[in-house]
Input
Amino acid sequence: MIERRQFLSRVTGTACAATLSAALLRCNRALAADGLPGGEEADDERSIGGMVKRAEPIVLPPVVFQDADGRDVTLEKWRGAPVVLHLWATWCGPCRLELPQVDRTVGELGASGVRILPVATHCGGTDKVKAFYAAHGVAHLPVYTDPKGAFVNATPPGALPETLILDAQGRGVARHFGNMQWSAAEVRKVVQALTGAAI
Output
């Protein structure tokens, strides 16, 4: 996971840095506690298939983010089917290491597979994410951005990378902080097990 000092070194502006500092302090305290609530884990070696169901689902607010053309979208677009929401950033070292696995998994799943939504947070817009994809050979991931970090703010403590499994009602039934090992088979298995959807 990205460390607080690394995160802050990549943002500018005193007010912005102060806000992020406070958010990441809460994050550090939460991750340092004896386990995370609802069965959450911060384990960089876990397979995505090992994610566990939360005791209580996360009800996300109606966060507005942007697609590849800069148009506003919300998770309502995917309501009715389970979704794997993956929050990452171009400047986050662990995210950059994990993203090729996510890309390969999306390619393996194909158009009819489980939907994986990678949302780049605090990354300066779609052009920067497109350039990152091109530079790193990311071929299968759609471009979605959250320039103001609304998702991170809505899902404290806000460490990156963060992966949430959403059920057909858009509720977060599982959440993981940190890198994971990804594969299409494991994604299908865990989404079916945690959401009850026929995959």
Observations:
- Helices lie at 4-8, 14-32, 93-109, 126-135, 150-154, 184-195.
- The radius of gyration is 16 Å.
